[in-house]
Amino acid sequence: MSKPTIGFIGLGLMGRAMVECLQKAGYPVIALGNRDRSGIEEAISRGATEAASARELAEGSDIVMLCMGTSDHVESRIYGDDGVLAGTKSGQTVIDFGTSLPSSTTKIGADLAEKGAAYLDAPLGRTPAHAVDGKLNIMCAGDKDAYDKVKPVLDDLGENVFHLGDLGNGHKIKLMNNFFAMTTAMAMSEVFAVSDKVGVPRQMVYDVMAAGPNHSGMMDFIKNYATDGQIDLAFSVANAAKDVGYYKQMAENFGVDSRMAGCADATLRAARDGGSGDLNVPEMVDWMTKNLESK
C-alpha cells in the first residue's frame, strides 16, 4: 500500500529534521521553500518536490504539515489566494506542529471544516535530534477519526503520541507546560544570580535545593549552565517569551488573569527586547547577574 504524500511547510531546525525522518520512512514529500534555502535544498536532495505556493502544496498532498514559529506565521500560510485553505480538499488533514494560540487554532479548524478538511494541533516535545530518529513527543488534538487516519504517520515521527481530545487542547497543554517550565527556569536563574550577590556558592545552593521536592529536570538544565557552562536546553529566549506571552493571552481569552505569568513574561520580554533574544534559556543566569542591580 502506497504511503500518503506529505506537504510540509516550515523547514527550520525542527521541520527539516521531521522531513528527513519522513523521507527515510518512505513518504513522498512536497515542501515549501523560504528565504533560507538550506532546508528545502536538503529535502530536494533526498527526493522531495518543491511547491511554488502553499496552495499548490495543499493541492498535491494527502496530509499537510506546518511547523512554524508563531500563529501569525501559520495564518499567513493558511489564508490568502495562495494559502493552504485555497488548495485544500475534502478528506484532507492539516496538522500544526508548532506552539500556537488556541483561539487561532479553532478558527483555522472551523474554516478548513467548511471545505471538508480536518485540522489537528500537535505541538511537539523534544529536540530536532529526536525528530530525525522519529523519537518526538507529539501532543495531538482534534477530530478522532482524522487522528486515527494519520496516526501511522505520527507514529513514524514520534515515540510518544497522545490524543488529547478536542481541537486546541494540544496547544493549551503545551502552553501550560511551557509557562510552568519557563517560570521555573527564570526563578532558578535568579536564585543563582542572587547567590553570587549574597556570597553563597552556586553548587552549594543547588545541592541543598536538589535534595528536596524542588528538584526537577529544568532545575538541572539551569544548574548545568550556571556551574559548568553546559547548555542542555537549546531553546531561545525569544521563543520562551513568545510562549509565555501566548499563555497569558490564552488565559485572558478565557477570562482568566494569570497571577504567576507576569514575572516570567516581563523578564523574558526585557531580555528579548534588550537584544538578548538569541540567548538560550539557561544563559539567562548571566542576564540575571547583570540585570538584578537595585535601581
Chart the SSEs and their pairings.
Blueprint: E1 6-9, H1 13-24, E2 29-32, H2 38-45, E3 49-51, H3 54-59, E4 63-66, H4 71-78, H5 84-87, E5 93-96, H6 102-113, E6 118-121, E7 124-125, H7 128-132, E8 136-140, H8 144-157, E9 158-163, H9 169-198, H10 202-210, H11 217-228, H12 237-253, H13 261-276, H14 284-291
Parallel strand pairs: 1-2, 1-4, 2-3, 4-5, 5-6, 8-9
Antiparallel strand pairs: 7-8
Helix pairs in contact: 1-2, 9-11, 9-12, 9-13, 9-14, 10-11, 12-13
Characterize the main sheet. 6 strands, parallel
Strand content: 5-15%
How many helices does DSSP assign? 14
How many distinct folded domains?
Answer: 2
Determine the fraction of residues in helical runs and give it as a percent range.
40-55%
- What's the CATH first level of the largest domain? Alpha Beta
Provide the CATH superfamily of the largest domain: NAD(P)-binding Rossmann-like Domain
Oligomeric state of this protein: single chain
Please state how the strands of the largest beta sheet are arranged side by side.
3-2-1-4-5-6
Distance between the termini: 68 Å
Radius of gyration: 20 Å
Mean pLDDT: 97
User: Tally of extended strands?
Assistant: 9
Estimated structural class: alpha/beta
Low-confidence spans: none
Q: What is the name of the CATH topology of the largest domain?
A: Rossmann fold
**What's the architecture of the largest domain in CATH terms?**
3-Layer(aba) Sandwich
Shape category: elongated
